[in-house]
């Protein structure tokens, strides 16, 4: 398994190394659409012949620049995203012909107004609940508006056949990623959670999806074969942790690393970009627009009220991954996840009868000492 850590690290480097690739693709005439969130139906973007790409927003580096325009007591993800845009330090933002945002929170909504002064921004108006016919109609109409925006912007026609082809390809990618991250169900898991996270992140910056699918599939197979031969990186005594909450980026790796340096192993990520996003397929047997509406409306995000989908998903994951404890990661000033934390704690501790830890943090590294103390004590308690 000596070559596997290298392959995993290569996926971890895909976002950084992809800077050159995205420039070359732009030089070839490719169109790029920057996206913020799991709610964006990427299949529609791909069906327009454009490349959907996650724009930078997970580093503290541009936050001081952002705070010249934005309040300091704002979510670091929002400040980081805006800071990268105004400083032109993120090639993905810089090279985006269009940026698509969704009204998942008030901070983002207002930031989009400011971002729209320097980039072409299309905002999708997200319903506040998954319940009812009105919400369904609203979100379907927003996906149709996105389709029309892309067609006009890039002078293309997005056909039903194009959409079906992209849905099938994206589903194959999801299935391959699911097979990989479900390595966490094994006892003990064959790799650490930080390695799973590197691959999940890197997949978002893989432009050749066929190559990505093959590479990850081969990697999963190799890891399983090595595991069967007795190669086990994780101790059987490691406490199995599920991480939930806000989106995770490189700046929040401090939490994952601290868990895994103190006797724990992260076996499952119920965050944006994790199971809640790629764990569910788009129905290939109905009208593509209806299929995309159903898939993307039902993401278990705290911006929805009520958010029963998250409780149901957590219950399923805790059982399937044999979880010993749950760590809920809340980014500073993310009010929806912070308010919902009480409900999650009550569910995890009283209904699932396992320990729960709430961590509120930002992108700085100044709280690492505190994290080591709290996480170490949490895992020791388990």
Salient structural properties:
four-stranded parallel sheet; 8 strands; Rossmann fold; 382 residues; globular
Percent of residues in helices comes to 40-55%
Overall average residue pLDDT: 95
Over the alpha carbons, how many angstroms does the gyration radius reach? 20 Å
Main sheet overview: 4 strands, parallel
CATH fold group of the domain at 25-158:
Rossmann fold
Number of strands: 8
User: Judging from the principal axes of the Cα atoms, what is the shape?
Assistant: globular
The separation of the N and C termini measures: 31 Å
CATH class of the domain at 25-158: Alpha Beta
Beta percentage is 5-15%
User: What is the CATH architecture annotation of the domain at 25-158?
Assistant: 3-Layer(aba) Sandwich
Structure classification: alpha/beta
Q: What string, H for helix and E for strand, traces the elements in order?
A: HHEHEHHHEHEHHHHEHEHHHEHEH
Spans of 5+ residues with little confidence (pLDDT < 50)? none
Count the helices. How many? 17
- Give me the side-by-side strand order of the main sheet: 2-1-3-4
Structural notes for this entry:
- The chain has 382 residues and is an alpha/beta fold.
- The protein has a domain of 134 residues: 3-Layer(aba) Sandwich (Rossmann fold), CATH 3.40.50.11890.
- Helix content is 53%, strand content 12%.
- The chain contains 17 helices and 8 strands.
- It has a 4-stranded parallel β-sheet with strand order 2-1-3-4, with helices on both faces. The protein has a 4-stranded parallel β-sheet with strand order 6-5-7-8, sandwiched between helices.
- α12 links the parallel β5 and β6.
- α5 runs parallel beside α7, α8 crosses α14 and α12 packs across α17.
- The protein is globular, with a radius of gyration of 20 Å.
- It holds the Pfam family HGD-D.
